[in-house]
Design goal:
This protein is mainly α. It contains nine helices and no strands. The two termini are 18 Å apart.
């Protein structure tokens, strides 16, 4: 006996066809929350960077800047670690048998991770990295923990590491092609910007012992540029995503049409 219901049945009897849909809610929430965080940081720098952030020995510096520094570090790195542990704990344990429609949805989710990662990297490399150079060209630093560094290196970088490393863990735990092997382009796109954080130690050591000028073209800053350029490897990851999605789209939508 055929299990297919005839099309002549009333609408209230026929089962509703399953439709392929993507949930963009968390994607939108991420953009709104991140925009609020970045704008808030920028306004805070504008309000206090030149008034109570010029001398680390003043009590106001401890109140307005070191309090922010010691508050944000455990929160941001704690959230980043918690997200990675959650992705690992909720991984697909039967990843080789993922249905085509589920795999396609995961590729869309993976793309969202990368878009948000690009968004965070843009804010870090534009507003806050450029502002860091301007601030240090204006003010002679007396400590490596400056108002611009507290936001740039100890807030912006942990935020983009959350989404960069998160995208890597997501792909490795939910997408068959990325689980079977390591995407070299994805490694470059995530590990390169990640290494900017340890490169910070070399940068501060150089400024402390060589007393170099704060110009972007100085060799001491080349590491930031080269490591940042690794983010361009995201174009290669996008090609890998598109290649597989071109195979999945006809399968998924043909199945929907048949249903």
């Amino acid at each position: 006996m055929s299990s297919v219901l005839p099309a002549s049945l009333p609408a209230e009897v026929r089962p509703a066809p399953r439709r392929f849909a993507i949930d963009y809610r968390w994607f939108a929430v991420a953009f709104v929350v991140l925009s609020g965080i970045y704008v808030g940081y920028r306004m805070y720098q504008q309000a206090y960077g030149m008034t109570v952030g010029l001398a680390s020995t003043e009590p106001e510096f401890q109140t307005y800047w070191m309090t922010l520094f010691w508050t944000q570090l455990p929160i941001l790195f704690g959230i980043a670690i918690a997200v990675q542990l959650y992705l690992i704990a909720t991984r697909d344990r039967d990843i080789e048998n993922v249905a085509p429609d589920v795999e396609l949805k995961r590729y869309f989710s993976f793309t969202m991770w990368l878009v948000v990662y690009t968004f965070t990297f843009y804010w870090t490399g534009s507003f806050f990295a450029e502002g860091d150079g301007n601030w240090h060209q204006t003010v002679l630093r007396d400590t490596p923990i400056t108002p611009s560094h507290i936001v740039l290196f100890y807030a912006c970088i942990p935020i983009y590491l959350l989404f960069g490393v998160g995208s890597f863990v997501y792909a490795m735990t939910r997408i068959p092609a990325f689980c079977r092997g390591i995407s070299l382009m994805h490694v470059f796109a995530v590990v390169g910007p990640f290494l900017i954080l340890p490169n910070l130690g070399y940068n501060e050591w150089g400024h402390a012992y060589w007393l170099t000028e704060e110009i972007f073209s100085h060799p001491l800053h080349w590491g930031f540029v080269v490591l940042g350029w690794n983010a361009l490897a995201l174009a290669g990851v996008l090609m890998q995503i598109i290649s597989r999605m071109r195979e999945l789209l006809p399968i998924v939508f043909k199945a929907e049409t048949t249903a």
